[in-house]
Amino acid sequence: MGTVVKLKNQINNSYFQLKNSVEEKLLLVEEKIKSKLSSEVELANKMTAYHIDTGGKRLRALLTLGAARLCGYKKGSRDINLAACVELIHAATLMHDDVIDDGQIRRGKKTLNKIWNNQSSILLGDYLLSRCFEMIVDDGNIEILKLLSATSSRIAQGEILQLQHKGEIDMLEETYLKIITDKTAALFSASTKVGAILAEVDTKKKEALEFYGRNLGLTFQIADDTLDYNSDLKIFGKKIGQDFYEGKITLPIILLFQKINDDEKKLIKDIFSSEDRKNNDLDYILKLIKKYKIIAECYKKAQHYIDLASSSLSIFKDCKEKDILNNLTSFSISRNF
Questions:
Q1: Could you give phi then psi for residue 105, rounded to 5 degrees?
Q2: Which of 67, 132, 289, 308 shows the greatest Cβ crowding within 10 Å of its Cβ?
């Protein structure tokens, strides 16, 4: 038990190492977000204040700050402004996600659409995106403008692709990877590349950090989707089954469907085609996942992307900043918050 706790602490420390290394700048990112979301509309202020109060890991902002630091950026506060931008894009997509998925709880609190309504949540997400792009235009770097504009487009396309395949129990693994590459990994990738662009490093280093971010994002999403079906999740303190009850087809279900027999396939098809999935349906799925050792297989696939992310950092000289980003790959797969 002591070894497990020690390992878990090391994993979580990798996140806090990054956070502590840029703590002063992260505080300024928070202030920047608050100031940019100030509105003359009372409802908008109430909703943004509630959203900010729900917190979050600020991982994408940290990646921008950390990548800029690794590349030697020291020219001012552009990293703060652009770290705030990637967080605003992320926040907007979460608001839209909760409407699409009829989300009720996020980060342990009621979602904006649950407290107010879907219309207000969609419009607030649009407001966040608008403020974000005002900030990018003010920054004045056309490469960053093109990157974050394209990233926002990819995220939206990922959402549409997921809707297109909703309930498709025999979804191809390739399709799933395309969805999470667009929905999640694209913004991770942009977050790290922005830091490199700010520091004006060469193309190879920009591409290395872009590749690192993409593979970190893939690891992060695969791990998140796997946690949803891990019946040992008391370790992580996260409620399981959310994706299942929303009818999302993620990697654990895709891999499970490839292995089960015809009778089990029929039962799973019936479960996911139903309007409402019940607790005993989840219990049955979890039993099959254990039977076919799906959790281990998911983590094995995630490990592949961890290895790719780590190897991409080899272009940088050894330093504390490189070690922190390298260690962060373990946090992405084994975090407990």
A1: -130, 135
A2: 67
State the average pLDDT for the chain: 89
Residues 6+ apart with CB under 8 A from 66: 18, 21, 22, 192, 195, 321, 324, 325, 328
Rounded-to-integer distance, Cα 173 and Cα 62, Å: 30
List, for residues 152-176, the tens digit of each pLDDT value: 999 999 999 999 998 899 999 999 9
Entry pTM: 0.91
Return the axis-axis angle of helices 173-180 and 251-259, rounded to nearest 10°: 180
Please state, in angstroms and rounded to a whole number, the distance separating the CA atoms of residues 193 and 295.
Answer: 31
User: Is 196:71 a contact under the CB 8 Å cutoff?
Assistant: yes
Instruction: For 72-106, give one letter per residue: b (16+ CB within 10 A) or e.
Output: ebeeeebbbbbbbbbbbbbbbbbbbbbbbbebeeb
Cα–Cα distance between 47 and 243 in angstroms, integer? 25
Query: 187: closest CA among 161, 218, 228, 224?
Result: 218
Residue 130: closest CA among 143, 149, 106, 114: 149
The pLDDT of residue 74 is 86
Query: Where are any strands of DSSP class E within 23-136?
Result: 105-106, 109-110
Q: Provide the 3-class DSSP secondary structure of residue 110.
A: strand
pLDDT digits over 172-230, tens only? 999 999 999 999 999 999 999 999 999 999 999 999 999 999 999 999 999 989 988 98
